[in-house]
Specification:
Layout (H helix, E strand, L loop, with lengths): L1 H23 L8 H17 L7 H26 L8
Length: about 90
Protein backbone atom coordinates (compact mmCIF):
# COMPACT_ATOMS: atom_id res chain seq x y z
CA UNK A 1 0.00 0.00 0.00
CA UNK A 2 2.87 2.41 0.81
CA UNK A 3 4.53 1.94 -2.57
CA UNK A 4 1.34 2.78 -4.45
CA UNK A 5 0.86 5.89 -2.33
CA UNK A 6 4.44 6.96 -3.08
CA UNK A 7 3.94 6.41 -6.82
CA UNK A 8 0.65 8.31 -6.76
CA UNK A 9 2.31 11.16 -4.86
CA UNK A 10 5.43 11.45 -7.04
CA UNK A 11 4.01 10.92 -10.53
CA UNK A 12 2.52 14.42 -11.04
CA UNK A 13 5.54 16.05 -9.44
CA UNK A 14 7.94 14.19 -11.71
CA UNK A 15 5.83 15.11 -14.73
CA UNK A 16 6.09 18.78 -13.74
CA UNK A 17 9.84 18.45 -13.16
CA UNK A 18 10.41 16.86 -16.58
CA UNK A 19 8.25 19.50 -18.27
CA UNK A 20 10.42 22.30 -16.89
CA UNK A 21 13.68 20.35 -17.23
CA UNK A 22 13.14 19.93 -20.99
CA UNK A 23 12.79 23.71 -21.32
CA UNK A 24 15.31 25.05 -18.80
CA UNK A 25 18.12 22.48 -18.80
CA UNK A 26 18.91 22.41 -22.51
CA UNK A 27 22.18 23.84 -23.82
CA UNK A 28 21.96 27.11 -25.76
CA UNK A 29 21.24 26.91 -29.45
CA UNK A 30 23.63 28.52 -31.94
CA UNK A 31 21.06 31.31 -32.44
CA UNK A 32 21.17 32.19 -28.72
CA UNK A 33 24.96 32.55 -28.49
CA UNK A 34 25.14 36.03 -30.16
CA UNK A 35 22.46 37.25 -27.71
CA UNK A 36 24.55 36.03 -24.79
CA UNK A 37 27.65 37.77 -26.17
CA UNK A 38 25.75 41.03 -26.58
CA UNK A 39 24.40 40.71 -23.05
CA UNK A 40 27.93 40.26 -21.70
CA UNK A 41 29.17 43.28 -23.70
CA UNK A 42 26.33 45.38 -22.29
CA UNK A 43 27.15 44.25 -18.77
CA UNK A 44 30.81 45.22 -19.21
CA UNK A 45 29.88 48.64 -20.62
CA UNK A 46 27.42 49.17 -17.74
CA UNK A 47 30.20 48.39 -15.31
CA UNK A 48 32.60 50.79 -17.04
CA UNK A 49 30.08 53.66 -17.17
CA UNK A 50 28.97 53.23 -13.56
CA UNK A 51 25.42 52.18 -14.33
CA UNK A 52 25.76 49.37 -11.77
CA UNK A 53 25.48 52.00 -9.04
CA UNK A 54 21.96 52.77 -10.30
CA UNK A 55 20.60 49.24 -10.03
CA UNK A 56 17.50 48.67 -7.95
CA UNK A 57 17.79 46.46 -4.90
CA UNK A 58 15.75 43.78 -6.67
CA UNK A 59 18.07 43.76 -9.71
CA UNK A 60 21.19 43.73 -7.55
CA UNK A 61 19.84 40.86 -5.45
CA UNK A 62 18.92 38.89 -8.55
CA UNK A 63 22.37 39.45 -10.08
CA UNK A 64 24.00 38.40 -6.83
CA UNK A 65 21.95 35.22 -6.64
CA UNK A 66 22.79 34.31 -10.23
CA UNK A 67 26.49 34.90 -9.61
CA UNK A 68 26.31 32.79 -6.44
CA UNK A 69 24.60 29.97 -8.32
CA UNK A 70 27.27 29.98 -11.04
CA UNK A 71 30.01 29.98 -8.42
CA UNK A 72 28.42 27.08 -6.52
CA UNK A 73 28.11 24.99 -9.70
CA UNK A 74 31.79 25.68 -10.36
CA UNK A 75 32.72 24.47 -6.88
CA UNK A 76 30.52 21.38 -7.21
CA UNK A 77 32.19 20.57 -10.54
CA UNK A 78 35.61 20.96 -8.96
CA UNK A 79 34.67 18.64 -6.09
CA UNK A 80 33.35 16.03 -8.50
CA UNK A 81 36.42 16.36 -10.72
CA UNK A 82 38.83 16.04 -7.80
CA UNK A 83 36.90 13.19 -6.25
CA UNK A 84 36.95 14.82 -2.83
CA UNK A 85 36.80 18.04 -0.86
CA UNK A 86 40.48 18.45 -0.07
CA UNK A 87 43.22 19.04 -2.64
CA UNK A 88 44.31 17.26 -5.76
CA UNK A 89 46.27 14.00 -5.94
CA UNK A 90 49.61 15.19 -7.27
Amino acid sequence: MGVMAAVTYTRPRLATFWYYAKVELVPPTPAEIPNAIESMKKMVSDFQTGRLAQLTVKEALRNGLVATEVLMWFFIGEIIGKGGLIGYNV
